[in-house]
Automatic annotation (TrEMBL):
This is Uncharacterized protein. It comes from Sutcliffiella horikoshii. It comes from the Bacteria.
Length: 111
């Protein structure tokens, strides 16, 4: 279930140009771990995709299935209390921005 939601998240991210702009030119390998299951994906300005047979990651995000699904649906990383994050602070900020921007509503509020 997490893999399917991750695939949907990556498809949404690819369709948003403002999201692609914040990604690095180099490939950043990420791993989401939930209940012993590992899902690897790579991010770069040129592509975002799931990766099969990966063993090493620059970023590891670990949590329960519910926490990971919250994250993939746009909850800020700091608001999901049970998450464990391994990576640099710069990577944390990048991933937090990515999860937030991909799921932000396309509508603008009229005041």
């Amino acid at each position: 279930m997490v893999v399917e939601n991750l695939e949907m998240f990556l498809l949404k991210a690819k369709s948003k140009l403002h999201v692609m702009e914040i990604l690095p030119y180099y490939s950043l390998r990420c791993c989401i771990v939930t209940q012993g299951e590992r899902s690897f994906f790579s991010l770069s300005k040129n592509q975002m995709q799931l990766v099969q047979d990966a063993t090493v990651a620059d970023i590891v995000i670990e949590g329960t299935k519910e926490e990971i699904l919250e994250l993939l649906n746009g909850t800020k990383m700091r608001d999901v209390k049970g998450l464990a994050f391994k990576g640099s602070f710069r990577h944390f900020l990048l991933m937090d921005s990515l999860f937030t921007l991909v799921n932000r509503s396309e509508r603008k509020e009229v005041s």
